From TrEMBL:
This is Glycosyltransferase RgtA/B/C/D-like domain-containing protein. Coiled coil: none annotated. The lineage of its organism: Bacteria, Candidatus Daviesiibacteriota. Keywords: Membrane, Transmembrane, Transmembrane helix. It comes from the Bacteria. The chain crosses the membrane at residues 7-24, 72-92, 99-120, 132-150, 162-188, 200-219, 240-258, 278-298, 305-326, 338-357, 364-382.
Length: 501
């Protein structure tokens, strides 16, 4: 049953969520955000197994219902994002039996700029369908795994957990980022609970490896199978590189957003190219967190297995980031889609800590409230700053798609030549072609093909059917050059007419 107080907590989560992220509805697809409009040409091609099969499948109903209405896609993403956070709340409560822990964990995770901005607000819709959607069954699976151990090992919970995990893995290989949680939890549990019971140890190791084995099939069709070195080889040959990479990621995750800008004042070189200070800070932070986790371990005996699992698994997730995306995460100091999964154990650890402190006494309660407010304000500030910084790209694509909405009947019924701004990108051209195109037209993306008026003349296109748009990088704006371009084409027609006399 849900109490009135719990309903209030959920209401606060939902209210803050919309306060932070409601602007997502007005965003546009940017770059590869249009990607899955190209690949979905029917059930046969979409159902062909691949590491991103769910992203392909989900675009079948999305396109059927939403067509070219970008805001409906964004609304769907926003509501799915909210559903993830609501499910996260109930899963954490299910695991810990503590509403405050669930509240703080969900608050930290759902409002995090580091975890969410790049994933949901960058216009890269492919990040959402590839990475965020499998997270829903993953957190359900983890909650059921914990339930299995604390229910007297009722087999149905293990079956449900493994089934939910397999579903997540089948939805996309990005789900394997969370694999450390499922492998490590049974091992820590049996080590802590059954120190000398060989049969129990073997049983729980088999359970642990069942999650690993269920991932092998999807791994074989993912970037894991295309790396120059195996994880073991990298561990042997590049241990320092792995440790430094993990340290940097850890510092970005646990320090307040924007800390790297402050650090720049103390170091002459750009952090993008001179990352040693960040690595050193990360090493110090890891040491401090080891002490912090040790204190939690002593203070909260009922949550010891969970706390150790979350902390150790965090480094496993960061190691996967290092193995697959070292070149990306080593230069990431703000929000990144690669920080979405590792932010879950961080948020959970913080949630456990803040719930414990909140109950201690009035002074600590005030400290907790103050720290949460600072966290919220800092994350809101950086989210707003980045939203303003990226606004020009969304506005540029919004302007050009509004043009197509206004003129789609004429464009579809007349031979046209439309020169599109570079902001749409190649996948954006496919989107325009899918929803606004016809056989007697041509869409060309600037920077990919020159605007050749003589060639257009030879194709017999009427000047009034030519549309030209240009994106000015310096002014960050799309300009309609149709009138000028039509006059140039008319001049070409006149020149060719005179030369034929």
């Amino acid at each position: 049953m849900i109490s009135k107080n719990e309903i209030k907590l959920i209401f606060v989560i939902v209210l803050l969520f919309f306060l932070f992220w409601e602007y997502i509805v007005d965003l546009q697809f940017i770059g590869e955000g249009f990607q899955y409009f190209q690949v979905v040409n029917g059930f046969s091609s979409s159902l062909k197994f691949s590491h991103d099969i769910f992203a392909r499948i989900i675009f079948i109903p999305l396109q059927f219902f939403f067509h070219e209405k970008v805001q409906l896609y964004m609304l769907f993403m926003l509501l799915f994002m909210l559903s993830i956070n609501i499910v996260l709340y109930f899963c954490v409560r299910f695991i810990t039996k503590n509403t405050l822990t669930a509240f703080f964990t969900t608050l930290f995770f759902s409002l995090s700029h580091i975890a969410n901005y790049d994933m949901f607000s960058s216009g890269g819709y492919q990040y959402f369908v590839q990475r965020a959607t499998p997270f829903l069954p993953l957190i359900v699976s983890f909650a059921l795994l914990v339930k299995y151990f604390y229910s007297g090992c009722k087999f149905k919970y293990f079956v449900l957990s493994l089934s939910s995990y397999i579903l997540a893995v089948l939805m996309g290989f990005f789900a394997i980022w969370m694999l450390p949680l499922f492998v490590i939890y049974p091992i820590i549990y049996v080590t802590y609970k059954f120190k000398r019971n060989g049969f129990a140890i073997l049983k729980y190791i088999i359970i642990s490896f069942s999650y690993l084995l269920s991932s092998l099939f999807i791994i074989s069709s993912s970037p894991f199978s295309k790396q120059e070195m195996s994880p073991i080889q990298m561990l042997i040959k590049k241990p320092t590189f792995i440790l430094e990479n993990i340290a940097q990621q850890f510092s970005v995750l646990v320090l307040p957003v924007g800390s790297y800008k402050v650090l720049r004042k103390f170091f002459d070189d750009s952090l993008t190219f001179q990352i040693n200070p960040v690595i050193e800070i990360g090493m110090i932070l890891i040491f401090l967190y080891l002490i912090f986790i040790g204190v939690l371990f002593l203070k909260l005996p009922k949550l010891r297995v969970l706390i150790l699992t979350l902390f150790v698994s965090l480094f496993g997730i960061l190691a996967i980031n290092t193995y697959l995306n070292a070149s990306t995460v080593m230069v990431s100091f703000e929000s990144s889609r690669y920080f979405y999964y590792p932010y879950f154990p961080i948020s959970f650890i913080w949630g456990i800590t803040f719930a414990y402190l909140y109950k201690k006494n009035t002074r600590l309660k005030l400290v907790v409230i103050l720290l949460v407010l600072v966290y919220m304000l800092n994350n809101y500030y950086w989210t707003y700053q980045n939203k303003v910084k990226d606004e020009y790209l969304h506005n540029a694509n919004k302007d050009i798609l509004n043009f197509f909405d206004r003129n789609k009947d004429f464009i579809k019924n007349n031979p046209t030549y439309i020169y599109l701004p570079s902001t749409l990108g190649p996948y954006g051209v496919e989107f325009v072609n899918k929803f606004y195109g016809s056989r007697e037209h041509k869409f060309v993306l600037e920077n990919f093909e020159e605007l050749d008026y003589q060639k257009i003349y030879e194709q017999g296109l009427k000047p009034e059917n030519l549309y030209v748009f240009h994106y000015d990088q310096k002014k960050q704006k799309v300009y309609d050059l149709t009138f000028v371009s039509r006059n140039i084409l008319k001049g070409v027609y006149e020149t060719n007419r005179k030369s034929s006399l």
